[in-house]
Amino acid sequence: MSLTVELPEEIAERLRVLAAAKGITIEQAALEMIAAQLPGPRRLSFAGIGDSGHDDTARRHREIIAEHFADKTARDV
Q1: What is the pLDDT of residues 23-67, one digit of tens each?
Q2: Residue 17 contacts residue 24 (beta carbons within 8 Å)
Q3: Which residue from 20, 17, 13, 15 is spatially nearest to 30, judged by alpha carbons?
Q4: Which end of the chain lies in a sparser environment, N or C, as judged by fewer CB atoms within 10 Å?
Q5: Cα separation of 34 and 26, whole Å?
C-alpha cells in the first residue's frame, strides 16, 4: 500500500535526523514509528493470571496445601 502524508517541517526534520542516526531511509523510519503506535494482535487479558512463577506447583500441590493449613484449625478455615 502506498500512502502520501504531508508533515509539518519540524516533524519532517526530526524524522530525517532519526533516519540518519539509524542509517535507514526516511520511509523506513516513518514505517517503524507508525507500526510502533498501532495496536498489535489482541491478547487475552487473563492469560497467565494463575502463573505463580513456580514450575513445581502441580507436582507439590498436596505438600503446599498441608503447609498452608498446618497451623490452622477448622474454625480458621
Answers
A1: 999 999 999 999 999 888 777 767 667 767 777 777 888 888 888
A2: no
A3: 15
A4: N
A5: 12
The residue with cell 487479558 is 45
Spatial contact of 25 and 35, defined as CB atoms under 8 Å apart: no
Q: DSSP labels for 1-57? A: --------HHHHHHHHHHHHHHTS-HHHHHHHHHHHHS--S---TTTTTT--S-TTH
DSSP 71: T
Largest CA distance in the chain: 73
In this prediction, residue 60 carries a pLDDT of 84
Supply the pTM of this predicted model: 0.51
Could you identify the residue written with the cell 498446618? 70
